[in-house]
Amino acid sequence: MVLTSALILVIIIAIACAGCSSKDTTAATGGAGKTSSGTSSAPAGAAAPAAAGGNCPTVSATNAWGGKWDSYANVDRCMDERQRFYPPSKDYEDPWNHPSRGAGNMHVPVTFTQTGCDVTGTMSNGPDGTLVAPYDCPIKLTGKVDKDNVLSGTWKAYCDIKWGGTENAKDTGVFTLWMEPDGAGFAGTIQGNDPGINKMIAENCPGANGNWVGKRA
User: Fold this and answer.
1) CA nearest 108: which of 24, 217, 20, 195?
2) CA–CA separation, 81 and 105 (whole Å)
3) CA end-to-end span of the chain, whole Å?
4) Is 49 helix (H, G, I), strand (E, B) or coil?
5) How far is CA 149 from the centre of its chain?
6) DSSP 101-132
7) What SS3 class is residue 70?
8) For residues 200 and 191, is the Cβ–Cβ distance under 8 A?
9) Cα angle 57, 214, 102; round to 5
């Protein structure tokens, strides 16, 4: 009888202890995979989520601005140099290299260097141009590419350039270029900072957008 009472007492104690350890631990851990502070329980050193992408497209063989380009720019912002991309004709057997294809043009080989969205460039006007400035005047360009691969920025020349339709010569300005879908050429605008240029554009050619063109060299 004494033995039976002792056995019953042991069983009661065991059941009581089991009840102490059967409580839900979710509140103590803050939920699955989290501590009570709510922070992630991922292993130390785990990679953080990738940051949002930049505003320029991924550089590929067809949309990279970097490299050498053969180009023509025109000191008259209203001139359309895109005619250099026209097919050969009786009058222009080689439209690209025809010196009189556009009056006021300057042949300017340019080299672009691209790092992500940032693009820098160097060029100089060649001796076959009619630019009113010293030949071989170095020009530096600084720009950025946007999500549509449009390159725009500023330029700095180490001489004063007289732009068509204005009376003043300037050594700084702006440019905007659009690349062809196949990446083989570009067309766009380049102009000086002289306020007279904007007045001339507004009065004579508000929709002009092709006084600078280029193709991969």
Assistant:
1) 217
2) 8
3) 108
4) coil
5) 6
6) SSTTEEE--EEEEEETTEEEEEEE--TTS--S
7) strand
8) no
9) 145
- Both tokens assigned to 58: 């991924």
User: What distance in Å separates the CA atoms of residue 143 and residue 111, rounded to the nearest whole number?
Assistant: 13
* Arithmetic mean of pLDDT, 131-136: 58
Number of CB atoms found within 10 A of residue 32's CB? 7
- State phi, psi for 4 to the nearest 5 degrees: -65, -40
> What's the pLDDT tens digit per position in 14-46?
444 444 444 443 333 333 333 333 333 333 333
The SS3 of residue 170 is: strand
- Report the distance separating Cα 77 and Cα 82, nearest Å: 13
As a dihedral over the C-alpha atoms of residue 12, residue 14, residue 18, residue 19, rounded to 10 degrees, the angle is 20
Query: What span, in angstroms and rounded, lies between the C-alpha atoms of 209 and 178?
Result: 10
**Torsion angle defined by CA atoms of residues 87, 92, 96 and 102, in that order, rounded to the nearest 10 degrees:** -120
- CA-CA distance, 143 to 117, in Å (whole number)? 8
Q: Which residue has the higher pLDDT, 171 or 133?
A: 171
Q: What are the tokens at 202? A: 């507004």
175: Cα separation from own chain's centroid: 14
Query: 91 φ, ψ to 5°?
Result: -80, -30
